[in-house]
Amino acid sequence: MNCTLTPMDREELLLAPYAMRSQQSAGRQYPESTHPYRTIFQRDRDRITHCAAFRRLSQKTQVFTGDSGDYHRTRLTHTLEVASIARTIARALRLNEDLVEALALLHDIGHPPFGHAGEDLLDERLAGEGGFNHNAQALRIVKRIEQRYPNFPGLNLSQEVLSGQQRRGSSRKAISEPPQPLLEVQIVDAADSIAYDAHDADDALELGLLTMNDMAELELWREATQVVESRYSNLEPLQLRRAIIHQLIDQGVGMLIETTLARLEDWQITSVEQVQASPSLVTMPEEFAERKLCMQQFLFSRVYRHPDLLRQRELSTAELGVLFDYYVDHGNELPTFYQTIAEEEGLPRAVGDYLSTQTDRSAREAYQSL
């Protein structure tokens, strides 16, 4: 007797009524036959993790460059941490974990080398061509730039993953208007915020840009510290710091789950259609959100605008600017694939595409070779 559940049966057993199911998917741009034991969203997740752009995230700046040491997060480790947090939330809310993981693994894949400094430089150089945005670039990568399959360009991801990423690149006003994104999309955005708040603080403390006394200025940090110290006594400073970071994440995730479940019940949400017709449902208590915003503002002024980081940004921006100008003047030195893009969309966009695929290391080596 065969007792094996089909992927569709498994979703019906496990998922809440408001979760996105594979059989509800709008499919792919280029139709493909169904897989015998993987859902469309499982295949999306796997395609993303196997693509070249995902692997390159290991050599791309999150906040701190490789010159700062090897403790801090890269784009890849940040992405994996976001996926981990998002999966936890998805399971608690009985959402589609495969879709959530695909969205989380994709969310930062469009970042160029040198983090937001590189993005700002490319946006400036491409101002006359529509600009550059890492969220939109992620779509270009998975729809055109990646070339892994013989039957279609890009990765041919599901419409749900593509539309979820597209909403990330939309204006704040557009995001607030119906139809709302799927709950799976909303929780990835929330997980991203929870992850970078805690982990950027951790990295800044490790690098000596902040001290524990500095962090004690924040109510959110003080609250987490009190919880940790009520559970443990005489922790070493490093143990204490890491325990506080864990508490920040755990507290944020717990409050998010609790508040979201309450909103789902208050709005009597029982379908994907109701999710899309309702206000944003994934949220935190207002007071906690305010304390979290204070922490983000603190990190912006004390870490992201730290003189050491600004100097690194200036150097990285200058190097990437030299590369951009060089390839615009020497378009014939671009790989053949990008010369094709230049013929169809113009040389500046092709150069932007090419440079966005570079890692910090490969961009720096190319600069030094000039």
TrEMBL record:
Residue ranges of every copy of the HD domain listed in the record: 75-197
Gene Ontology molecular function: any one: dGTPase activity
Superkingdom of origin organism: Bacteria
Organism annotation: Aeoliella mucimassa
InterPro entries xref list: dGTPase, dGTPase-like, dNTPase_2, HD/PDEase_dom, HD_domain, HDIG_dom, PHydrolase_assoc_dom
GO process terms (BP): dGTP catabolic process
Keywords tagged on the record: Hydrolase
Name used for this protein in its record: Deoxyguanosinetriphosphate triphosphohydrolase-like protein
Segment forming the signal sequence: none
Family from the record: Belongs to the dGTPase family. Type 2 subfamily.
